Amino acid sequence: MAALRVGFAGTPAFAAEALTAILSAGYAVPMVLTQPDRPSGRGLKLSPSPVKQCAVAHDIPVFQPASLKAPLARAEALSVRLDVLVVAAYGLILPPPVLSWPLHGALNIHASKLPRWRGAAPIQRALLAGDSETGVTIMQMDAGLDTGPMVDSVGVLIAPRETAGTLTVKLAAAGAAAIVAVLGRLARDGALAAIAQSAADATYAPKIGRADARLDWRLSAELLDRTVRAFDPIPGAYTRWQTETVKVWTAEPCAAPGAAPGTVVAIGPEGVDVACGTGALRLRSVQPAGGRRMVAAAFAAGRALLPGARFAVGEADAH
């Protein structure tokens, strides 16, 4: 078939890596959809998304509607002729007129091995669940939530101390390579074979809320360790010391004498050991609200924290 005209819809760095790979492979990208510029930094200056930055650097027209639900909002973008639309972490719902706009529909780069972890937060949910492997799926999009037939699937191992940040980097690279390979097949064959997902095997990865990142000391140390890693770098796992919110950036399970959950059982150069529902979690680096990251021992020294003190437990953490 003739050279593919590939549209692209995405927002964060994960998506920008795929766009860069598509451009490096020589595909024509006549337009890009990305979310509107957002305030960021201390000055809350409007900042373009990583995908917009990539598109502007390559002189690609960029469309940034706040929604694609209204015909007027999507009219300008849909006037561009496309053979296929690649979607990666775009963050907006694509209504049926958008899905049927390109000749070959829309291909989504999803950061899991579907049908496991359909939804908005597959990377975090895989880490929270203690999965040893995840992956990337290239999926033909339909009106459902990540329910479309699968065109390709690539496995990615999860390292023992993996964080959401390190895993995202690995999955972004895998997704970029996979979508270039899929586009190559489409350009060669003029069509893509796809396999239906098994609905019976589906699990869901709902959007992350602030409460998900709260450390509930009544849970096991292993689960809290996974929570810390699943929310690094965003939004950061947290607990409360007296009236102070404290983010926990690095931690690991450790052995400890029995004590009530949330109780500080030991303090040393290696960190602050806090009793959990099962075992204890050694806090290695933390960040008090409005402060900088520091080793946990320095945090303890600055607040005269001693064994026997307790971090907030349960609902008290939510206030």
Describe the structure.
- There is one protein chain.
- 26% of the residues lie in helices and 24% in strands.
- It has 319 residues and is an alpha/beta fold.
- It has 2 domains: 196 residues, Formyl transferase, N-terminal domain (Rossmann fold, 3-Layer(aba) Sandwich); 109 residues, Formyl transferase, C-terminal domain (Methionyl-tRNA Fmet Formyltransferase, Chain A, domain 2), CATH 3.10.25.10.
- Strand 12 and strand 13 form a beta hairpin.
- The radius of gyration is 22 Å and the shape is elongated.
- The relative contact order is 0.11.
Short account of what is shown:
With 319 residues, the chain is α/β, with parallel strands linked by helices.
Give structural attributes.
319 residues; Rossmann fold; Methionyl-tRNA Fmet Formyltransferase, Chain A, domain 2; 7-stranded mixed β-sheet; 6-stranded antiparallel β-sheet; 8 helices; 15 strands; 26% helix; 24% strand
